[in-house]
Amino acid sequence: MKHLLSLGHTRIGFIGISPEDGYTLRRYGGYLAALREADIEPLSKYTVGPPGAPAFATQEDGYQGMICLAALRKPPTAVFARNDFAAIGALRAAHTLGLSVPKDIAIAGFDNIPLSAFTTPPLTTADQSILEQGVTAARFLLDRITGRRSGARSMASMRCTLIIRESTDPLCPANRPRELRPGLPELLAPAGDWDCARAAVENGADHFAFRIDQWRPGIAANDVVGRNEIERRL
Rounded to whole angstroms, how far apart are CA atoms 200 and 191? Predict the structure, then answer.
Protein backbone atom coordinates (compact mmCIF):
# COMPACT_ATOMS: atom_id res chain seq x y z
CA MET A 1 0.00 0.00 0.00
CA LYS A 2 2.72 2.48 0.88
CA HIS A 3 4.31 1.77 -2.49
CA LEU A 4 1.07 2.67 -4.30
CA LEU A 5 0.63 5.76 -2.16
CA SER A 6 4.22 6.82 -2.87
CA LEU A 7 3.43 6.74 -6.60
CA GLY A 8 0.73 9.35 -6.02
CA HIS A 9 -2.35 7.12 -6.01
CA THR A 10 -5.17 8.25 -3.74
CA ARG A 11 -8.02 6.19 -5.20
CA ILE A 12 -6.93 2.66 -4.38
CA GLY A 13 -9.25 -0.33 -4.56
CA PHE A 14 -9.10 -3.67 -2.75
CA ILE A 15 -10.08 -6.92 -4.46
CA GLY A 16 -10.71 -10.20 -2.71
CA ILE A 17 -13.29 -9.74 0.05
CA SER A 18 -16.55 -7.90 0.61
CA PRO A 19 -16.57 -4.75 2.77
CA GLU A 20 -18.89 -6.50 5.25
CA ASP A 21 -16.42 -9.35 5.77
CA GLY A 22 -13.24 -7.28 5.62
CA TYR A 23 -12.76 -7.37 9.39
CA THR A 24 -11.83 -11.06 9.10
CA LEU A 25 -8.80 -10.36 6.89
CA ARG A 26 -5.66 -8.76 8.29
CA ARG A 27 -4.43 -7.76 4.84
CA TYR A 28 -7.59 -5.72 4.43
CA GLY A 29 -6.96 -4.16 7.82
CA GLY A 30 -3.54 -3.11 6.59
CA TYR A 31 -5.12 -1.59 3.49
CA LEU A 32 -7.48 0.51 5.62
CA ALA A 33 -4.75 1.54 8.04
CA ALA A 34 -2.44 2.70 5.24
CA LEU A 35 -5.17 4.85 3.70
CA ARG A 36 -6.07 6.46 7.02
CA GLU A 37 -2.42 7.07 7.81
CA ALA A 38 -2.25 8.99 4.52
CA ASP A 39 -5.39 10.98 5.51
CA ILE A 40 -7.48 9.22 2.85
CA GLU A 41 -10.93 8.09 3.89
CA PRO A 42 -11.56 4.52 2.67
CA LEU A 43 -14.62 4.14 0.44
CA SER A 44 -16.61 0.91 0.67
CA LYS A 45 -17.35 1.04 -3.07
CA TYR A 46 -13.62 0.51 -3.70
CA THR A 47 -13.68 -2.85 -1.89
CA VAL A 48 -15.02 -5.76 -3.95
CA GLY A 49 -15.10 -9.48 -3.40
CA PRO A 50 -17.32 -12.49 -2.79
CA PRO A 51 -19.54 -12.47 0.32
CA GLY A 52 -19.14 -14.94 3.14
CA ALA A 53 -15.46 -14.31 3.88
CA PRO A 54 -13.96 -17.12 1.77
CA ALA A 55 -10.57 -18.38 2.89
CA PHE A 56 -9.04 -17.78 -0.54
CA ALA A 57 -9.49 -15.36 -3.45
CA THR A 58 -9.43 -16.78 -6.99
CA GLN A 59 -8.61 -15.46 -10.45
CA GLU A 60 -12.35 -15.23 -11.09
CA ASP A 61 -12.76 -13.05 -8.00
CA GLY A 62 -10.04 -10.76 -9.32
CA TYR A 63 -11.54 -10.62 -12.79
CA GLN A 64 -15.04 -9.80 -11.59
CA GLY A 65 -13.71 -7.37 -9.01
CA MET A 66 -11.81 -5.37 -11.62
CA ILE A 67 -14.85 -5.29 -13.90
CA CYS A 68 -16.91 -3.85 -11.04
CA LEU A 69 -14.30 -1.25 -10.08
CA ALA A 70 -13.78 -0.13 -13.67
CA ALA A 71 -17.53 0.44 -14.04
CA LEU A 72 -17.58 3.06 -11.26
CA ARG A 73 -18.15 6.65 -12.29
CA LYS A 74 -14.82 7.50 -10.65
CA PRO A 75 -12.82 4.26 -10.67
CA PRO A 76 -9.64 3.72 -8.66
CA THR A 77 -6.28 4.36 -10.29
CA ALA A 78 -4.65 1.48 -8.41
CA VAL A 79 -5.73 -1.86 -6.97
CA PHE A 80 -4.31 -3.95 -4.14
CA ALA A 81 -5.44 -7.56 -4.51
CA ARG A 82 -5.80 -9.96 -1.62
CA ASN A 83 -3.42 -12.41 -3.26
CA ASP A 84 -1.58 -12.91 -6.54
CA PHE A 85 -4.31 -15.09 -8.01
CA ALA A 86 -6.86 -12.31 -7.61
CA ALA A 87 -4.33 -9.85 -9.03
CA ILE A 88 -3.80 -12.06 -12.08
CA GLY A 89 -7.56 -12.10 -12.66
CA ALA A 90 -7.58 -8.31 -12.36
CA LEU A 91 -4.78 -8.06 -14.93
CA ARG A 92 -6.82 -10.14 -17.35
CA ALA A 93 -9.90 -7.97 -16.80
CA ALA A 94 -7.86 -4.81 -17.38
CA HIS A 95 -6.64 -6.25 -20.68
CA THR A 96 -10.21 -7.18 -21.67
CA LEU A 97 -11.34 -3.62 -20.92
CA GLY A 98 -8.51 -2.11 -22.94
CA LEU A 99 -6.81 -0.60 -19.90
CA SER A 100 -3.05 -0.14 -19.88
CA VAL A 101 -1.24 -1.41 -16.78
CA PRO A 102 0.15 0.56 -15.01
CA LYS A 103 -0.66 3.68 -17.06
CA ASP A 104 -4.44 3.45 -16.60
CA ILE A 105 -4.56 1.21 -13.55
CA ALA A 106 -1.76 -0.05 -11.28
CA ILE A 107 -2.19 -3.56 -9.85
CA ALA A 108 -0.38 -5.17 -6.92
CA GLY A 109 -0.81 -8.60 -5.39
CA PHE A 110 0.43 -10.54 -2.39
CA ASP A 111 2.35 -13.82 -1.90
CA ASN A 112 4.89 -13.65 -4.78
CA ILE A 113 3.81 -16.92 -6.36
CA PRO A 114 6.19 -18.08 -9.14
CA LEU A 115 3.71 -17.10 -11.87
CA SER A 116 3.69 -13.47 -10.71
CA ALA A 117 7.05 -12.83 -12.41
CA PHE A 118 5.72 -14.03 -15.77
CA THR A 119 2.41 -12.19 -16.11
CA THR A 120 1.98 -9.35 -18.61
CA PRO A 121 3.15 -7.05 -17.22
CA PRO A 122 5.06 -8.76 -14.40
CA LEU A 123 3.20 -8.33 -11.12
CA THR A 124 4.27 -6.19 -8.19
CA THR A 125 3.69 -8.25 -5.06
CA ALA A 126 4.69 -8.83 -1.44
CA ASP A 127 6.81 -11.86 -0.69
CA GLN A 128 6.14 -13.76 2.50
CA SER A 129 8.35 -16.79 3.00
CA ILE A 130 6.34 -20.00 2.67
CA LEU A 131 9.23 -21.86 4.30
CA GLU A 132 9.09 -19.59 7.34
CA GLN A 133 5.32 -20.03 7.55
CA GLY A 134 5.68 -23.80 7.45
CA VAL A 135 8.43 -23.87 10.08
CA THR A 136 6.43 -21.62 12.39
CA ALA A 137 3.25 -23.69 11.99
CA ALA A 138 5.15 -26.90 12.68
CA ARG A 139 6.74 -25.36 15.77
CA PHE A 140 3.32 -24.29 17.09
CA LEU A 141 1.96 -27.80 16.52
CA LEU A 142 4.90 -29.47 18.25
CA ASP A 143 4.58 -27.08 21.19
CA ARG A 144 0.92 -28.09 21.54
CA ILE A 145 1.73 -31.78 21.32
CA THR A 146 4.50 -31.56 23.92
CA GLY A 147 2.51 -29.26 26.21
CA ARG A 148 4.93 -26.33 25.97
CA ARG A 149 2.16 -24.06 24.67
CA SER A 150 -1.49 -23.75 25.67
CA GLY A 151 -4.40 -21.44 24.94
CA ALA A 152 -7.05 -21.10 22.26
CA ARG A 153 -4.65 -20.24 19.47
CA SER A 154 -1.19 -18.91 18.66
CA MET A 155 -0.35 -16.09 16.26
CA ALA A 156 2.84 -14.91 14.59
CA SER A 157 3.66 -12.06 12.20
CA MET A 158 5.84 -12.84 9.20
CA ARG A 159 8.24 -10.42 7.60
CA CYS A 160 7.24 -9.32 4.10
CA THR A 161 9.41 -8.04 1.26
CA LEU A 162 8.04 -5.76 -1.45
CA ILE A 163 8.80 -6.99 -4.98
CA ILE A 164 8.35 -4.05 -7.36
CA ARG A 165 7.62 -5.01 -10.94
CA GLU A 166 6.10 -3.35 -14.00
CA SER A 167 2.42 -3.69 -13.00
CA THR A 168 2.69 -0.67 -10.69
CA ASP A 169 5.84 1.29 -11.35
CA PRO A 170 6.01 3.39 -14.53
CA LEU A 171 9.74 3.86 -13.88
CA CYS A 172 10.56 0.15 -14.13
CA PRO A 173 12.94 -0.56 -17.05
CA ALA A 174 10.28 -2.23 -19.17
CA ASN A 175 8.02 0.81 -18.91
CA ARG A 176 10.35 3.61 -19.99
CA PRO A 177 13.28 4.38 -22.27
CA ARG A 178 16.58 4.91 -20.56
CA GLU A 179 20.00 6.23 -21.39
CA LEU A 180 22.86 4.24 -19.96
CA ARG A 181 25.35 7.01 -20.66
CA PRO A 182 25.26 10.15 -22.82
CA GLY A 183 24.88 9.31 -26.50
CA LEU A 184 24.10 5.64 -25.94
CA PRO A 185 20.34 5.06 -25.87
CA GLU A 186 19.23 1.71 -24.55
CA LEU A 187 17.05 -0.66 -26.51
CA LEU A 188 14.56 -2.25 -24.11
CA ALA A 189 12.98 -5.61 -24.79
CA PRO A 190 10.78 -7.54 -22.37
CA ALA A 191 12.25 -10.70 -20.90
CA GLY A 192 15.43 -10.56 -22.94
CA ASP A 193 13.68 -10.88 -26.29
CA TRP A 194 16.50 -11.79 -28.69
CA ASP A 195 14.21 -11.37 -31.70
CA CYS A 196 14.06 -7.67 -30.85
CA ALA A 197 17.86 -7.53 -30.73
CA ARG A 198 18.18 -9.43 -34.01
CA ALA A 199 15.78 -7.05 -35.76
CA ALA A 200 17.69 -4.03 -34.47
CA VAL A 201 21.01 -5.43 -35.71
CA GLU A 202 19.57 -6.37 -39.11
CA ASN A 203 18.19 -2.83 -39.45
CA GLY A 204 21.68 -1.43 -39.01
CA ALA A 205 21.46 -0.07 -35.46
CA ASP A 206 24.97 0.80 -34.32
CA HIS A 207 24.67 2.83 -31.13
CA PHE A 208 22.57 1.06 -28.62
CA ALA A 209 22.82 -1.39 -25.76
CA PHE A 210 20.38 -4.21 -25.16
CA ARG A 211 19.18 -4.91 -21.64
CA ILE A 212 18.64 -8.53 -20.72
CA ASP A 213 15.65 -8.59 -18.36
CA GLN A 214 15.81 -12.32 -17.87
CA TRP A 215 18.73 -14.67 -17.18
CA ARG A 216 20.34 -16.20 -20.24
CA PRO A 217 23.32 -18.61 -20.38
CA GLY A 218 26.44 -16.62 -19.68
CA ILE A 219 24.61 -13.35 -19.04
CA ALA A 220 23.47 -12.13 -15.66
CA ALA A 221 20.06 -10.57 -15.20
CA ASN A 222 19.97 -6.91 -16.29
CA ASP A 223 23.38 -7.04 -17.99
CA VAL A 224 23.76 -4.50 -20.75
CA VAL A 225 24.78 -6.08 -24.02
CA GLY A 226 26.07 -4.11 -27.00
CA ARG A 227 25.80 -4.73 -30.73
CA ASN A 228 28.97 -6.81 -31.04
CA GLU A 229 27.92 -9.12 -28.24
CA ILE A 230 24.44 -9.53 -29.73
CA GLU A 231 25.88 -10.37 -33.15
CA ARG A 232 28.15 -12.95 -31.56
CA ARG A 233 25.26 -14.64 -29.78
CA LEU A 234 22.66 -14.60 -32.57
Answer: 16
